[in-house]
Write a structure and sequence with these properties.
Length: about 375
């Protein structure tokens, strides 16, 4: 199906029409195209803006989160007054403000097993702008099974990755057969991310999606682009299809999209932020943040052992003591608490939501 452009659209897209690889036929192809962006965060913000500006006819935005103040350092689609609003609602408004000739689907639900394939089937290309390993596997599976290209990216601190996974080419499971152990890899919320890097990588994702929709250039299939923003370098890593891949190998065992999780072997009891002060009358706080994180605030009497040094320093802890393990947002502490349980510590809990949640309900604790 080809969408015929109006005189106003011809003027708007005139700089595209001048490019031989795009021209009028290519721009009409974009107008008839559909792209799904999973995650309206740091990567999704620039990707959505450039897809809209380019004239992609229908843009789906899947995210179940709301705008938070901590998002504003890198998620340039949002402004301060948007805090507390659903991301998809704001993102759809901004997409239409950028380009009234496109349509925006605000899909305010979590992308999960029950809806993954149905959502992917509605679009021509999918941009994985998520920040969770389970979602990345889910997007990959749904795209391969539905025959849609998956434009993947991830960012952390100063480093980014971009690649394209598609049927007939290596998929995400060929590159990463198993997710890392739960809590072993810090998130952007724990380790941080350079705001400008999100713009660089998200724009690159949009570029790959536009190439796929136009059928031009050489997509990043079988290649992973590694971006080092601190060293101002980019390099390419090539990889092949894995004959043993559970999804696209010679003897696949997966027939549906699933979330890949490494569950804790035994549930660790949690302490709510509002209960922490009372609990510390009988329990010791074990702070497992890394040294660079503790400059943001400490609690008196806490024991500080970074998660990266926990195994080497277990001998410093008393297995008869009661410990509440805390980190910044509650991910690393869950892993550390489980590690203590595995080492024979039976009186261990972890702080749900981390010290960030505690700071939100106790103004005397200056932690941001």
């Amino acid at each position: 199906m080809i969408a015929e452009l109006s005189p106003r659209e011809l003027r708007r897209y005139s700089r595209h029409l001048l490019i031989p690889e795009i021209g009028l036929a290519g721009q009409e192809r974009l107008a008839a195209a559909r792209a799904l962006v999973v995650g309206a965060g740091g990567l999704g913000s620039p990707a959505l803006q450039y897809l809209a500006a380019a004239g992609v006819g229908r843009i789906g935005i899947a995210d179940d989160d709301v705008v938070e103040e901590t998002n504003l350092q890198r998620q340039t689609l949002f402004v301060t007054s948007d805090v507390g609003r659903p991301k998809v609602e704001v993102a759809a408004e901004r997409v239409l403000a950028i380009n009234p000739f496109v349509a925006a689907d605000a899909i305010g639900v979590r992308f999960e097993e029950r809806n993954a394939r149905a959502l992917v089937a509605l679009y021509d290309v999918v941009l994985d702008c998520s920040d969770r390993f389970p979602t990345r596997y889910l997007v990959n599976d749904a795209c391969i099974l539905e025959g849609k290209p998956d434009v993947y990216a991830s960012i952390f601190r100063f480093d980014g990755q971009i690649g394209v996974f598609a049927r007939g080419a290596p998929c995400y499971r060929c590159l990463y057969p198993e997710p890392p152990p739960a809590g072993s890899v810090p998130t952007c919320a724990e380790g941080g991310v350079l705001g400008a890097l999100a713009g660089i990588v998200g724009a690159w994702q949009a570029n790959e999606a536009l190439k796929l929709l136009l059928g031009i250039g050489e997509p990043l299939t079988g290649r992973l682009m590694l971006v080092d923003a601190l060293g101002a370098r980019a390099r390419e890593v090539r990889f092949e299809r894995d004959a043993c891949c559970s999804l696209c190998g010679e003897s696949p065992v997966l027939s549906d999209a699933i979330e890949m999780r490494n569950e804790e072997r035994e549930r660790v009891e949690e302490v709510e932020a509002a209960e922490l002060a009372a609990a510390l009358r009988e329990w010791r706080l074990l702070d497992v943040r890394e040294p660079h994180e503790t400059v943001l605030g400490v609690l008196p009497g806490a024991i500080h052992i970074p998660a990266s040094r926990l195994d080497a320093r277990l001998h410093e802890l008393d297995s008869a003591q009661r410990y509440i393990v805390a980190c910044r947002v509650g991910v690393k502490s869950r892993w550390a608490a489980q590690r203590l349980r595995d080492a024979g510590f039976t009186r261990v809990r972890h702080l749900r939501g981390g010290l960030l949640a505690y700071a939100a309900q106790d103004e005397s604790f200056a932690f941001f």
